[in-house]
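Researcher: Quick sanity check before group meeting.
Model: Go ahead. Protein one:
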Amino acid sequence: MNVPALQRLLAELRQYGISDENVLAAIGAVDRERFVSAPFAERAWENTALPISFGQTISQPLVVAAMTEALRVGPRMKVLEIGTGSGYQTAVLSRLFRRVYTIERHKPLLAEAEARFKELRLHNITTRVGDGWQGWPEPGQIPFARILV
């Protein structure tokens, strides 16, 4: 992890009004470099969206922070995320929520994200391939305290 670049990013997020220290700590704990494609690794800590497979992007850190902060997290909550993508937002959420449920429509993207979760030992994430418009396929898991789209 590029600590100076991470510190610059966290300072920039604070300048943009992100004030929840738990959200900032979660972003600081997730190595964004592991979630970007190799050609973009040196840009991983920039406050910008970057391309991933299937015409998708890894969200800009400010967007991740603002969306996460807007959830007003409680540690015993479970959250549903629609659109796993690279898994970066999911990994940030996993640091804050008791359980994270995430749906991705592109099976290869989800497989890559699952491998990252395993490598990072993030065990509170449950994944599914599917259409997020259909919601979570197993009714036994609802209701969710929060939903992120």
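Researcher: Fine. The other one?
Model: Protein two, sequence then structure:
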Amino acid sequence: IVLNDFLTEEWQQNSRYAYKFTFEGTTYWFSKAACAALEEKLLPMKKSNMIVTAILLMRGESKSLDMIAGGALRDGAYYYGLSTANERSVRKLSALMTFLAKRYARSGARYGRISNWVLGNEVENYGQYNYMGELSLAKYAKLYARSFRVVYNSIKSVYSNARIYISLSNCWNIKQPSGRSFTSRKTMEAFAASLKAEGEISWNLAFHPYPQPLTDPVFWDDLATNKSSTQFITMKN
């Protein structure tokens, strides 16, 4: 789910193009077209009794700069971290996630249902998938944890049994070769520490156990061990 798609330009903020949603006294408008596109996928899944997991992503677009951490756009970044820099951005993110949860998380959702929500893609690879600027691991983990908490609280306030996940790649004790990354292990540990420091919540982990190397599907000879010092987590270990 690309969150930008649900945001509207000023000319779209009417009942023809968007759904009116009032949250904590403020009115927001969320795109009808984005909802229709998502429901085209969700409704057949609901009919088949599938349990749906959605990945929440944010692209770098002009209409979304107030929701991007630091407004930090750069070449080579596919997706961006979510902003919690001020009350306005937090409220807007809370409103959007509450809107999505009310429409898609409830057990009797008529538009389709999402049970599991993943915030970001392989977030240790911040240069490509969760850019928030050039930050230390501690600062990066703290900012991501704060946006995670906003998403968590918004969805859980609607459906308490929903699960919210952090996404990590198979690079457990090694950085991505493309640069601008941390290791998955250090990212996970720093994220957990940040959550604990500000009030621990029941987070979940969605990791990608790709083979190593990526182009070789024979995973049982991967460069992976059963020790915590392993470089990679694949289907082998």
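Researcher: One line on it for the slide.
Model: The chain has five helices and six strands.
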